[in-house]
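Why does this matter for the project? Reviewers at the last site visit asked to see concrete outputs rather than summary tables. In response, this paragraph embeds two records directly. Each consists of the residue sequence and, immediately after it, the corresponding structure tokens. Nothing has been edited or filtered.
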Amino acid sequence: MVTVEFRRPAVVKLDVGDDAHQLLQQTIDRFKQAAQMVADDGWNGTEDGYIVTSKTELHDRTRHRRLARRLPVDDPSRGS
């Protein structure tokens, strides 16, 4: 017996008030920025010229870079 599994994204419309819309947009922008940073790091690869595909290695590499540069983790509007 063969089992076939499909995964599809669910599109959900969020009901966000005007005051929370800006915060949601900031969160989305920061997520995109972080995802792009990880993708760039993976494509830049290692010193040996290999592309990094390990989720754990990418996490460690980008986390250490963020800590070294002291990039903010919290919302910058809160003064963190």
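We now turn to the second protein, recorded in exactly the same manner.
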Amino acid sequence: MNQTLIQEILEVVEQAAIASAKLTGLGQKDEADAAAVEAMRLRMGMCERARGSWGR
């Protein structure tokens, strides 16, 4: 796997963790999951725009 793709994947996961961490311990599992998914989608969208599309 190329280093750029690895870095992008790490950044996607990092943003998901940061978004869901804000709800940790509050008993809001579904909301934490939704926040993580939304953060991942936003970050992946940034990667796609920068690359033209995933996998190139």
